[in-house]
């Protein structure tokens, strides 16, 4: 339902009722499916069933066997004509604010509270597209609204995907992540995410940890979406990033690095970050280094492809549009290098959540098989986020996070354009198959 058609009151009431329904999954649910995908092998179990106890999967296999183990009174869900997959996971996005306003001053024109209201709306879109897991890759909100929403989901106060989140976007003054785009005589007070030396970065990291960040986000290079930085230029030094990794890992947190330019990709990898976001200018040396160190890549291909198309229509400044055009020709070759070097790849959109299915198509178009693209958003994403024991596959002991589609996504990735049924934690939260 479009946000503009809801009053704030009706939106909150709708979310509250949905959330209450999610808080109490049926004791046992038996989901019968035409086929269930084993994302590890790419094989299907046909005429299959999944038995869920509470919020966890108890058994999966041929329907005749699993149904025989279902206790009397189990809720039956009939999906005999559908393909069932595990819930999907987006490892790179930003949930706060209006995703259809890409101007550099968007965050300066919205309060922290309004950004969070948009975040509540946006989270429903992830669920509607079958994404039951999400990593927020940093926000400019000094109130850490993304962490409040994460905690609200965890406590059952609001509906949304399972979330982990970065805090602020740790950057240098004037870098990609400095939210002050104003003239020098109109400048904002200096914010806590800015770090221009090794000592300052320790404080910036500790600040994010203090307020509850799961991940630390470093801006290793300039970027495309701001009017100030150069995506080719390394911004945070290798020494700064190594210090950030030391502080974060000691606290049991993980580190991701926005890195588009070649030098910044390699510096961040040498510094020990856990994942490289984008990697758009990656060379062979950088790909080999990432593979050697086991550093993950979240390529976010679709957002680079779409950038020049939308241009100024969503408020982007001309300098941003020119950067989008300049970086796009490098993306395919960089991704090919990552594939060739066997770099670990996970799914991330970094765009309007309405575009979620398009990233699968971009990954296939630039070199992955449909199964590999699905794996990037399931078992790979779960491993990156440390969720491998709980999510990413349909297997006993994991959460009852399931989605259904019509057709065979292993043969035709565009099937994921239309998710018809979504379950999170044993509770159905979207059902277009049985809607009247």
What does this structure look like?
By secondary structure, this protein is an alpha/beta fold. Helices cover about 35% and strands about 20% of the residues. The chain has helices at about 10-20, 65-70, 110-130, 145-155, 200-210, 240-250, 260-270, 285-295, 300-310, 320-340, 355-365, 370-375, 380-385, and strands at about 30-35, 45-55, 55-60, 75-85, 90-95, 130-135, 160-170, 215-220, 255-260, 275-280, 295-300, 400-405, 420-425, 425-430. Helix 5 (about 200-210) packs parallel to helix 6 (about 240-250), helix 9 packs across helix 11 and helix 11 packs across helix 12 (about 370-375). Mean pLDDT is about 95; it is low at about 1-20.
Helix content: 25-40%
Instruction: Report the count of strand segments.
Output: 14
Which percent range describes the beta-strand content?
Answer: 15-25%
Let me know the average pLDDT: 93
Order of helices and strands: HEEEHEEHEHEHEHEHEHEHHHHHEEE
Outline the biggest β-sheet.
7 strands, mixed
Overall geometry: globular
**Secondary structure category:** alpha/beta
- Please state how the strands of the largest beta sheet are arranged side by side: 3-2-1-4-12-13-14
Q: What gap, in angstroms, lies between the N and C termini?
A: 17 Å
Discrete helix count: 13
Q: Tell me the radius of gyration.
A: 21 Å
Stretches where pLDDT falls below 50 for ≥5 residues? 1-22
How would you sum up this structure in a few lines?
With 436 residues, the protein is an alpha/beta fold. It contains 13 helices and 14 strands.
What brief labels describe this structure?
436 residues, alpha/beta, seven-stranded parallel sheet, 14 strands, seven-stranded mixed sheet
